[in-house]
Write a structure and sequence with these properties.
Layout: H1 2-11, H2 23-32, H3 40-53, H4 64-95, H5 101-130, H6 133-142, H7 150-160, H8 169-175, E1 180-185, E2 189-195, H9 201-206, H10 208-217, H11 219-230, H12 235-256
Antiparallel strand pairs: 1-2
Helix pairs in contact: 4-5, 4-7, 6-7, 8-12, 10-11, 10-12, 11-12
Length: 266
Amino acid sequence: MYGLDLAVALSRRDGIEVMVANPRAVRRFAQALLERNKTDRIDGDVLQQFAARMPFQPWRAPSVNAMRLRAIARRLEALTVAMAAEKNHLHAASLSEETPEVIREDIQQSIARFQDSITRLTAAALAVIGSDELLKRRFDLATTVPGIAKKSAIRILGELAWLPDDMDARQWVALAGLDPRHHTSGTAIHKKPRLHKAGNRYLRGALYMPALAARRHNPTLNAFANRLITRGKTPMQALAALMRKLLVILHAILRKNQPFLLAQHP
């Protein structure tokens, strides 16, 4: 959060261009410099050398509404995870005769508080979307995709609204960490491709439930997943492929500004 505040503040100053570097890239750069220590001074020197040697990629601050939406969406995700954990605690407590009733009551109250917060923040997210013409249009388009309901669309759009308009579908997939990573060397090493998982875990997580729903309710996408399993992919690999396909579909309908059509999906 502090880094975001700094980047936004600097981008609003005249005469200052801002680049937001990928932390993984900077860390790998430091390793390439054989820098084993980590102090504020060393970090500053590494960043200075990184900026001097790497191509400059200017960063533009997202709109205020995009920043608000992402903040609310990520809080919603955290609350949803916490509520799921409390529900698991309640289930375990209900099966234990040694758990005092006061504990079960407290967990139930905790779940109710989480639900109230989720309801309130969902309404706030929808209000932000409704006040922004671009976000509203993208939200309406996203929810035409089978499997993407309003809550999922809030989480997905909260991450996508930050992206530059000139990014293509492959870049979206890479940013989500859904691009397969290949490892081959000569004729001896041919490892099975695996997901990179080095991208935006929030976006990747937001696509998980829509992929499950699409598998159940979209015959075309379900057939796509079944074909992958028939070819030897595991169910989880097929689900990851569905997540990737949903992201490509979203890119297409948002770029074309057209709703999803079952017969014309990419």
